[in-house]
Amino acid sequence: MAKPKKQPRPKAETPKGFRDYFGAEVTQRTEMLRQIAGVYHRYGFDALESSAVETVEALGKFLPDVDRPNEGVFAWQEGAEEDKGDWLALRYDLTAPLARVYAQHRNDLPTPYRRYAMGPVWRNEKPGPGRYRQFYQCDADTVGSGSMAADAEICAMLADTLEAVGMPRGDYLIRVNNRKVLNGVLEVIGLPEGEDRAAVLRTIDKFDKVGEAGVRELLGKGRLDASGAYIDGVGLAPEQAEPVVQFLLAGKTVDEKLDTLGQKTLGEIDPDDPELHSIISMILASKRGYRAGSGLDVSASNALRNAATLHVLRELVCNSVVGSEGVNELEEIVVLLEAQGYDSSRIVIDPSVVRGLGYYTGPVYEAELTFEIFDEKGRKRQFGSVAGGGRYDDLVKRFTGQAVPATGISIGVDRLLAALREKGRITAHDQGPVVVTVMDRDRMADYQAMVAELRNAGIRAEVYLGNPKNFGNQLKYADRRHSPVAVIEGGDEKERGVVQIKDLILGAQIAESATLEEWKERPSQFEVPRTDLIAKVREILDAQAGGQD
Amino acid sequence: MAKPKKQPRPKAETPKGFRDYFGAEVTQRTEMLRQIAGVYHRYGFDALESSAVETVEALGKFLPDVDRPNEGVFAWQEGAEEDKGDWLALRYDLTAPLARVYAQHRNDLPTPYRRYAMGPVWRNEKPGPGRYRQFYQCDADTVGSGSMAADAEICAMLADTLEAVGMPRGDYLIRVNNRKVLNGVLEVIGLPEGEDRAAVLRTIDKFDKVGEAGVRELLGKGRLDASGAYIDGVGLAPEQAEPVVQFLLAGKTVDEKLDTLGQKTLGEIDPDDPELHSIISMILASKRGYRAGSGLDVSASNALRNAATLHVLRELVCNSVVGSEGVNELEEIVVLLEAQGYDSSRIVIDPSVVRGLGYYTGPVYEAELTFEIFDEKGRKRQFGSVAGGGRYDDLVKRFTGQAVPATGISIGVDRLLAALREKGRITAHDQGPVVVTVMDRDRMADYQAMVAELRNAGIRAEVYLGNPKNFGNQLKYADRRHSPVAVIEGGDEKERGVVQIKDLILGAQIAESATLEEWKERPSQFEVPRTDLIAKVREILDAQAGGQD
C-alpha cells in the first residue's frame, strides 16, 4: 500500500482517450452484440476471437492518415533491456488479424471460411470529443471466395442485422460501390495508376463535406476552404473532371430522374426528353421491374433504381476492361440480392461510397442510417454511416504469397448503439434491484433470507449493505439504483408477521404530480403478510412493467 | 502490399503465449458469461467495463512472484521520442482497475457499489503449456461495505453461479478462510508482523504440494525437495509450528471427527473420548444443527461442520484480539449463509485457503471443483480451484487516502469452461449450417433465394461459395462444417420442381456402421417438392436433435 506521506498518491484517472462503461452501457452493448451474433450465426458464420496482441510485423501498416509515432498503434518491444525481442502491438482492427489467423490456420479451417468477430480495437490517435482510443468493432468476413455471391451475402446480412437490432426498414440504406468502376472511368480519361488516382479517391471522399462544386474545384486547380487556406487540386482538365463528377453523382442523378418519372404516368413521359433519355431508354429496354399499363410506382422505381445506375455507369466506363468488370460485378450483386428480396430501397448502388482503407480491391459497401438527428450545433443532419467494408483480395497474400480473395464488413458498435438510443429503441438504464432495507442490524440473517427468497423467485434483489443507521440514506440509495420496490421489516412488523412494501416508481410519480386526494386513493406503500412477500412484489413489478408500455 | 522479392513475408503467428479461439470455444464462453451475468444481475450487481489500458501508476504492483521486466505487465510509454508521457499498461486483473474506477467516479456511484466485470486481462509472464498471457476473468465485487453480509453474499452468489452454468451441487465447494485468524495464531506463538509472517503464509500455500509433513519441515528448519535441492525453512520451533499446523488442518480434522461420529449413534459416543473431546463438547453445548434423539446424519453433520471448525479455531487463537475478530467474522458469514440455506455441503470454513495476492485483509474464499479428473500423467486428482477472492480494504485508499472497504471474487473463465467440458455439460462444436450446394454456377440466384428462405425460417444455412466444379469438395466442406443437411438442386431437379435433401448425420452413421440392408430401409437422401424444402429440412433437424438426447 502507498504510504501517503512518503509517496504521492496515484491519480485515479483513465489514460487520455480511454473511458469506462457503466451498467446499461455495457448490458445494452452485450445484448446488441448477442442479436448481431445470432444473425451472423444463422448466415453460417463461425465465431473467432483472435488475440488482442499481434506482432507489429503481422499487423502491417494499413491505417489511413497516420502521422503519429508507432504508426497509429500502441506498440512495445518484447523482453528485458538486454534481451529485446519482437515488437508487439494492440490490434487496430479485426481485419488484419483475420488475415494472420487465416494464413496461420488455413489447413484446419474450411474454405471458404466465414467468420465473425467482436471486440475492442485500439488506435493510438489524438483523442477528441466522442473519439476514443479503444472502441468496439463487430466484423463478418468470408475468406477464400472470389464470388460476388459472398459480397451480396454480406450486404444482405448487414440489412438483416440492422433490422434485428431494431432499426426499422426505411431508416437505413446499404450503399454499394466498386473500386474497379472508378478505375475504369480514370482509365477512360487517361489518368495513369499511382498517386493521382489516390488523390482522386481522396477528393471523392470529401463530397459529403464540400459538395459537387467543391469536388469539381478540388479535381481541377484547387479551392479556398472555409478557414481561408488554399487547398491544391488534383489538376485534372475540366473535360477529365466531368466524367468523374458524373460517376460520383450517378446514384443521385438516377434518384432525381426516377423522382421526375414517378410524378408522371407512362403516357405523359416524352421518350425523347433529353434529360431523361438514357434512363427512359434503359427502362424501355429492360423488362425487369417494369409494369406495363401502370405508371412508375414506388416498388417499380425501387426495382429500377439499381439497374438504371448500372446503365449510367456502363456508359461512363465505355470500353475500359477493368471498368466493365466492376460494373458487371455490381450487376451480379444486384441480381443476387433481388433474388432474395433486397431491392434498392434497402441496398443501393452509389458511386460516392469510397471507404478510406487502402486495401480494398473491388466492391465496397457502407451502411448508412438515413433518419435525421440534430448535431451538436443544433443543425439537422442524417445520422450517417454505422458500418462499412469491402473486398480485399490481397491481405492474406502478404503472409502466404498466394492470392486469397476475401470480403467483409465492420460495424461501428458504439455508433450503432447511439443510433438505437436516438431512436428510443433502448432505454436509459437497467431495471434496478428490489432493495430490502435494514431496520435492525442484528437481524441481517432475516433480511438475507428474504432476499434469497426474492432471488430464487427470479427477482433482482439485494439487501442494503451500507451503514443502516440513517433510514433516509437507504431510500436515497434505492433511488440512485433505480429500484422499483423497497421492502421494510422493523421489529414491530416482524412481531406481527408482516412486511411493508413500497412502490418506488408510483411513489415518485405521486410525489411529482398527484394531488392529496389521489395520494390517498393510490397508496404507494402496502402492508402484507410476510408469506405474501413474493406475490405482492411480483404484482407491483408487473404493474410497473405494464405502465411502461 | 508486401512485395515478396524485396521484403520478407511477415510470419503468420500469434505472439508467444497468445492464442486464438475458434467457433464453439467462443460461443460457449459467451453463453457461460451470459449465464453468470444473469446471476450477478439478479443479486443486484451492475455491469462495468473499464478501459483495458491503465496508467502503470494506477495499476500499482500487486502481482505475486514477479521477477520479470515491467513487473509482470505489458507496458509502454506514451508519446513520441521527443515528447514522452505517462507509462501505460494492459490491466493484469479486474480488481486494480475497479479500485481506480471507484476512486475516480465515487461521487456518481451508489454506495455500496456492487459491480461485475468480465473480459480479458494480460500478464507478461513466461508462457507455458496451457498458460497464456491473455485470459478471461469474470469478477464481482462490493465496494463500500465492511459488513460480513457482503462477503457472505459473494460466497452465496458464487455457489449459485456454479450451479447456473451447470455444475451440480456436490461437485463444488466454496472454501472460506480469514487472514486475521492466522495472524491471531501467529500472535499467540509470538511471531512478530513482517517477513516471517509472509513466509508462513507462503508455506501454508504449499500444503497441497508438500502435505502435512512437508509443511512441518518448511515451518521449521527446511526440507529436501523432490529435485534434491534443500529449501530453507521459516525457522519456527516445533512448539511454535504445531499451532500453525493445527490451524491449517482444522477443517480436515473436523471432517475426520465428524466422519467418526457419523458412524456412531449418540448412545455409542463416549463423551470423554479425548480424540473427540472438543468436538463433542461443542456439539453438546450447541443447539444449532443438533437433532435430539437421533444419530448424527449427513444434514446434521453438514450443519455442525462449520460450527465445529469455528470452535477449533477459537481455541487456537486463544485471547488474540485480531484472531478472535477473524473467528467472529467467519462465524457471522456462516450464520448469514445458513439463514439462506447454504450449509457446509456447499460453503465450508477451511483454514488451508490462502490466496496468493498480497492485498487481502480479512475473509478469503476459493471455489473448488471436487470431482476427479486424470491429469496429463494419467493420475487421478481433484479438478481444483476455479475461482477465488476475498476482502481488500486498502486498495481504494491508495488513491483517495480514505479507507474504503471492499470484497469480491474472480472466476477463472477458461478453467471453469474446461471443467464444464470435462463434465460433458457443453458439446465439442456448434451446430453447423445447412449447406445449399451449387450444381449450376449460373443459377446462383436460385440458390441464394433458397438459402434466404431457410434463414428466414430461422434455420442456420449457407450457399457453398467455393469453386463449385468438384461436387465432392462441396460435400467435404459440409462435413468439415459439421453440417446437418445438404440441399441439392441440379438442372433436372429444377425442371421437375423438386430438390434433393441429404441427411448428413444419418449418412455418416450409415457409412460407419450399417449393413447394406439397413441402408436400403433408411435412406439418407430424399427427393421432395421444392415447396416442401423448409418443412422437410426442419423435420430432419428435429429428428437429429431428438436422436442426440
Automatic annotation (TrEMBL), chains A, B:
EC class of the enzyme, as a word: ligase
Reaction(s) the record says it catalyses: tRNA(His) + L-histidine + ATP = L-histidyl-tRNA(His) + AMP + diphosphate + H(+)
Main location (coarse class): cytoplasm
An example Gene Ontology CC term for this record: cytoplasm
Amino-acid positions noted as binding L-histidine in the UniProt annotation, renumbered to this chain: D93, L94, T95, R123, Q137, D141, R355, Y359, Y360
An example Gene Ontology molecular-function term: histidine-tRNA ligase activity
Localization (cell): Cytoplasm
A Pfam family this chain is assigned to: tRNA-synt_His
Aminoacyl-transfer RNA synthetases class-II family profile domain boundaries: 1-433
Top-level taxon of origin: Bacteria
Protein family according to the UniProt entry: Belongs to the class-II aminoacyl-tRNA synthetase family.
Protein name: Histidine--tRNA ligase
Annotated gene: hisS
